[in-house]
Design the sequence.
């Protein structure tokens, strides 16, 4: 593979990725190499700015520096453009291991950046998910209803209140309590966001792990609560399920859609 | 495939589905923008695809690159082409990755070694898909390692790979200004029988001798003239308008689609007159 062609191409891309420390190909004018460098930078940064508008706005002047480092340090393997945001998340993840000093400075100023970026990606992911079919029963919730999570749903637990963060609210201290959120596509193809109570988050996580009946889910919750089972767990859970089902986040069915035994 | 096409863009998806411009005979999209997309946009796409024939114009195959051909991507593309009965699949005669994607169209060095490298890869793609690939002449701003003129490189690749050409008329114009050569000479040397279809688009004038291929502006007069010359030299071929930035209302793009159609009709009439005379 080591060949003249290979060398010409790798010198070319080395300059595009890192014009500050790479020599530009000697047989072409520097001004023209800068055109390429600028095209690559603008293309990737405009795609990522569209994908992560809140992170871009919050980080302000640091955003461009971040884009430069992404181009320099990350090797993207996804050929599909809607997967570019996932590449950026992977890059942010890799930073925690071996970040340079400038990166540490950015993370110190915006300690929520990885979680906020993840939350913005979830919205993109849900937008392009297959529209879920409506398989829910409209009857009041019964103990023998089988509960299934909307297949597009992300049930999220963050250390930072990512849904409130913006240029006017840039917290430096992580709150004591976690933030629970759900993002999903409604059957009429709208992206829905929902703030969750700890009970709702736990219940949805359980439903996501194993689709089972309402009675089984309540039993599971009471085991998880141990000595601290709330008095009205059954009523609370049933009301909660009515609400979650009306929003399209949970389906209650009488048919076994998994094909297995209930 | 015949007539006039438009590159489908997300911003006018709904409008295009409701009122496809009357001048449009086919539309084009990049499979890498759609393969993993479902939801509402995909439903709209499916509805458009019922009304009009589709062609696909790839972005990430990295034909001229050194990384192994992405067979998973090719598999997905093959399924996509079958799903929509796609009339033609084209890619850029460029590379877009080193050891990772750069999501851009980088110029393959104009060397003999590159001719054989890229034509081998094109042949493998064609074998894999069981169909001919069209490659597009790309715009470029400098050519490191250049051993031969661009036209020679293009001719050698088309011949060696036995593939067809997506002739981008705007790119010929942009390159002729940036590299100071005659656009008409270049156009005349294109092998007519290789042309699958054409592209036309706008660009940005940075300096007198530097045009940037942005697809972000209206088509300029010299490019319209070059399209007219292209039909005169090679006969009328299907031609598609690309617009990626500063996208105006669909109505305003219709004026440009109409202009393509007018030029095509003029040449078809001329051709018919000549035929009758003979």
Sequence:
């Amino acid at each position: 593979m080591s060949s003249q062609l290979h060398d010409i191409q790798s010198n070319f891309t080395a300059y595009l990725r890192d014009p500050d420390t790479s020599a530009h190909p000697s047989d072409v004018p520097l001004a023209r190499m800068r055109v390429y460098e600028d095209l690559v930078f603008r293309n990737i940064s405009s795609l990522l700015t569209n994908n992560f508008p809140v992170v871009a706005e919050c980080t302000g002047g640091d955003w461009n520096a971040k884009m430069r480092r992404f181009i320099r340090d990350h090797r993207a393997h996804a050929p599909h453009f809607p997967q570019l945001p996932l590449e950026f998340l992977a890059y942010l993840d890799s930073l925690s291991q071996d970040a340079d000093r400038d990166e540490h400075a950015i993370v110190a100023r915006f300690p929520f950046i990885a979680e906020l970026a993840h939350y913005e990606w979830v919205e993109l992911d849900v937008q392009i998910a297959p529209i879920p079919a409506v398989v829910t029963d409209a009857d009041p919730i019964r103990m023998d209803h089988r509960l299934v999570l909307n297949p597009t749903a992300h049930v999220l637990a963050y250390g930072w209140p990512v849904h409130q963060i913006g240029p006017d609210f840039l917290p430096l201290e992580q709150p004591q309590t976690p933030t629970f959120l759900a993002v999903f596509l409604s059957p009429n193809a709208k992206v829905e966001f929902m703030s969750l109570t700890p009970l709702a988050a736990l219940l949805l996580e359980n439903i996501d792990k194993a689709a089972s009946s309402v009675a089984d889910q309540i039993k599971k919750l009471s085991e998880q609560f141990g000595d601290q089972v709330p008095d009205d767990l059954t009523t609370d859970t049933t009301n909660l399920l009515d609400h979650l089902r009306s929003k399209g986040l949970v389906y209650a069915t009488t048919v076994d859609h998994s094909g297995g035994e209930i | 495939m015949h007539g006039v096409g438009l590159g489908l863009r997300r911003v006018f998806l709904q409008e295009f589905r409701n009122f496809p411009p009357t001048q449009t005979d086919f539309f084009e999209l990049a499979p890498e923008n759609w393969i993993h997309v479902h939801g509402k946009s995909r439903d709209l796409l499916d509805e458009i695809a019922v009304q009009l024939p589709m062609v696909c114009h790839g972005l990430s195959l990295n034909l001229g690159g050194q990384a192994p051909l992405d067979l998973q991507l090719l598999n997905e593309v093959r399924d996509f082409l079958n799903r929509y009965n796609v009339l033609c699949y084209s890619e850029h005669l460029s590379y877009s990755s080193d050891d990772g994607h750069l999501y851009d169209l980088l110029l393959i060095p104009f060397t003999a070694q590159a001719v054989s490298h890229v034509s081998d890869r094109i042949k493998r793609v064609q074998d894999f898909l069981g169909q001919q690939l069209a490659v597009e002449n790309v715009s470029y701003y400098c050519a490191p390692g250049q051993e031969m003129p661009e036209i020679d490189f293009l001719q050698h690749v088309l011949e060696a790979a036995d593939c067809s050409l997506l002739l981008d008329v705007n790119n010929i114009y942009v390159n002729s200004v940036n590299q100071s050569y005659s656009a008409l000479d270049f156009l005349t040397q294109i092998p007519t029988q290789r042309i699958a279809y054409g592209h036309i688009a706008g660009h940005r004038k940075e300096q007198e001798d530097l045009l940037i291929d942005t697809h972000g502006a209206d088509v300029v007069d010299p490019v319209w003239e070059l399209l007219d010359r292209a039909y005169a030299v090679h006969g009328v071929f299907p031609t598609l308008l690309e617009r990626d930035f500063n996208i105006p209302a669909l109505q305003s793009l219709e004026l440009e689609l109409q202009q393509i159609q007018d030029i095509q009709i003029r040449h078809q009439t001329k051709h018919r007159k000549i035929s009758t005379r003979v």
About this structure: Chain B touches chain A through 43 residues (CB under 8 Å). Chain B has a mean pLDDT of 96. Residues 4-277 of chain B form a domain with the TIM Barrel fold (CATH 3.20.20.150). The first strand of chain B starts at residue 4 and ends at 7.
